[in-house]
Every structure is written in structure tokens, then in C-alpha cells.
Amino acid sequence: MNFDWLAEQELELLPRLLTALGIGLLIGLERERNPTAKAGLRTFAMVALSGGTAAVLAQVFDAPSIYAVGLAAVMLMMIGAYYATGFSAHAAGDPESARDADPGTTTIAAAGACYLIAGLAVSDSARLAVILAVIVTVLLYFKSELGGAARGLERRDLVSILQFAVVAFVVLPVLPDRGFGPYEVLNPRDIWLMVVLVSGVSLAGYVAMKIAGPGQGTGLLGVLGGLVSSTATTLTFSRHVRSGTVAMEVARRVILVANLTLLARLAVLAALVAPSVLAVFAPVMGGAMGAGLTAMALSRRPEGAQAVLAVPRYGNPAELRAAIGFALFYALVLVAGAWIGERWGSVGLYALSAASGVTDVDAITLSNLRRFGLDELTAERVVAATLVAVTSNSLFKLAIVRFTGGPALFGHCLPTFFAAIAGGGIALVLATRIPA
Length: 436
Hints:
The protein has 436 residues and is mainly alpha-helical. The chain folds into two domains: 3-141, no CATH class; 154-431, no CATH class. Helix content is 80%, strand content 0%. It is built from 17 helices and no strands.
């Protein structure tokens, strides 16, 4: 028993226990507004205090079983409360009420989570505990929205999620973590990790678009289209303009927002792969987005009549075939980048960025970020090469707009594309001087 430790830690433990109490009140407040829940504000506050106190006592007596027994007691208490409700209804001769009674699985699970999170708050992890408490409360509060979203997913959407699970949690852990091939740049685990990152961002946009459904605003549709595939979005809405199913201004806004979202997508990937590059990367991408949004706002026209916007048909971004295709392309870019960098230096880097950026900006950006992590490239060159790839990709999409959507749509989109590229270039010059 360690009562001396408890006496010394009293002043430090009090704020942690109060944090645990706040967690219980937060979760309990959400349950209090649910008329079917058998536990509310006071019950969850007590559960949280029990979890926090049990965590302290487990440390004082050096007996972790105290914490486990407390959790079992809380769960049995909650289960008993719901069982007693159903038993009372049967005893009163009201089988219909017993059948319709809330089974309480969500509230019981919330009580268990509250107890565990409260214990975490006492154990020097208050920030993590508060974050988890907020997540639990959000999941409880948005029950109808989450249920509707799940019911809105089709079989192919669930297959997409399952395939991503295979890509991320089955394939990735078994891959070797060492270099192979020319220049030893082909690390299977690193390559597949980039596949997971790109597929994950694309899948998030894909699922969000499916949940949003038809009829969403042009801004939201453009953002989600940019997360999934800005090229596919550009092609789809250029075709809509050609066929007359969507007004010119609507298509313009969706296409431009999707392509500006690509810049934010690249910043997210940079933050995940090489956070230290953001000091240069973020201002340049932000400058490009700011200039593009300004040009887009200045050239805005009335939308006019339009059909209800339909969600474009995208391929599954987490499909194994697509994942393997991206992995092969990314590996090719890695080898080409190492070879060209050795022979031609910066000139070769920018030439490769321009060539590969036509069809895929992600691969060359991730390749350059990897080389930055290995101290082979400076942050300035990584950002400059990314801007070259974005420029090449933008020119390709402008060609799609011109030859698929027609000269009028091309004329409406050109100023924003040009402003974004110019804004990024100016931001790069202002942010830093590119080494020779």
C-alpha cells in the first residue's frame, strides 16, 4: 500500500478527478436529453468519478484488478437496470411495452467508455481523455445522422471500405521494411504506406460524397470531387456542359473548387509524410488557393436554371487493382527520380515533375517528400517541383475542359487556373529563394 504517495499527490490528483467528473457530465448531458436512456447526468458523473477513483486506488494498493472489478460492477449495474425495466413491463402484463423498451446497448457501452476514459484522465493522459470523451459524445449525439449515412451506402461502397481495410491492415503490416532495386529506393512498406495515405484521403471523399447524395451545393460537390479525383470531376462536368444537363456556371464552380481542393489535399499529404516541410509548403499552397479563390469570386456569374446535381460515378479509390497500379507508378517515379537526380540534378527533377504531374500529382509529390525526408532535397525544391507538377496537371485539365466542355467553359475556367498557378509562384518567391 502506498498511502504516502497518495498524500503527496493529493493536490495533483484533484484537477485530474475534476477532469474525469467533467467527462462524465459531458457524456451524461447527451444521455439526459435522450428520453429512452436509463442513465443521465448524475449517473454518468458517478460512473466517471468511480473510474477515476478506481484508477487511483489501483495505484495506491498496487492492484490493477481494482480497476477491472470496478468496470465489471458498472457494466453489471447498467445491464441490471435495463433488465429490470423489461422484467417490470412483463410483470405488469404489458408485453408490448417490454418488446418496445430500449435495449440500452448504446447507453451501456457509453457507461463503460466513460469509466475507462475517466481512468485515463487520472493517469497523466487528460488531453487524450478529453478528446475521446468528445468523440464519444459526438457519436451519441449524431445517432440519426450516422444511421442514415450507413443506410445510404450501397454494397459497392461497403466493398470499398472493406478493400481499404485489406490495403491498410492486412497488406501493409506484412511487407518488408528495407530498400530493394536500383539505388535501393524501393522500400515495399514505404511504397504501400503512400498507397494507404492516398487511398484513405480519396476514400474519405468518396464516402462523404455518397452520404451527401444528390442535390448538394456546388461548393461541397467540388470539395468532395477534389478529394476523390479532380481529373474525373473536371471530365464529368465538362461533359455535362456539352450535353446541356448542367448550367455553365454550375459546372465552372464545381470544376474550379475541385482543382483548388487538390492544393489542400497535397498540403494534407505533406503534413502526414514530412511535417517539417510545411513551413514552406503551406504558404505556397495557401497563396495558390487564395489567388485562385479570388479570381473565381471576381468572375462569378448568376447560376441560372439547372438540373439537380447528381453525384458523378467514380471508380472505387481503394480497389486493390487501383492500389497496385498507383504503387507501381509511384515505384517508377522513385526510381526515375533517383536516376534523373543523379544525372541532371534540379533540371531533371523539374522535368520529371512536369511529365508525371500530367496524370498524377500525388505520386511525384510523395516521391519528392520522401527524398526531402532523406535529406536529398531541400524544402524549397520540393515545393517548386510540386508547383511544376500542379502546373502540368492544370494544363492537362484545361485541355480536357477545352475539348470536352467547349471554348466557352474553357474561357470561364482559364483565369482561375492561371491565377492559382501565378499565386503559387509568387508565394514561393516571397517565401524563400530557390537554391541554384
